[in-house]
Write the structure tokens for this entry.
Amino acid sequence: MAIEKNTVVSLSYKMYDEKNNLIDQTVDEPMVYLHGGYDGIFPVVEEALHGKNIGDTIDIHLSVEDAFGEIDPDLIRMEDINNLPEPPKVGMFFEGEDADGEVGLYCVTDIADGKAVLDGNHPFAGMKIRFTAEVLAVRPATNEELSHGHAHSAGHHH
């Protein structure tokens, strides 16, 4: 079965930075998404996968805009460490609200003088990405998956 709109696709993938350093990959479980414009994968990757079959591979380069986007300076802020729910360490994540009141994850990127730098950008924001993948499985989406707009794993809603 070829990948087409309203199919559920399972992939193994690897992502590399501009220097071809591996930055992410599937490990224990394949990536599974609903194909056809449901925002489950980068649109450029989805386009490259359209029409592919089990065993086919892709190797594409994504611009910053086609991957995780530019770094948004409004998502980087200083916070007094006393305002955080626990003593911060670099690399920790906290939930927080942005200027528009949207809740997001913030990573502690630096600590100095009783303040922590919190960054709400995706860790790969601002990066060009090389994305390689192999198609592991393709199946028709269920009516429930189509109504929810995302793939479900075997026996689970999510």
In short: Residues 7-68+126-148 form a domain with the Chitinase A; domain 3 fold (CATH 3.10.50.40). The two ends are 23 Å apart (CA to CA).
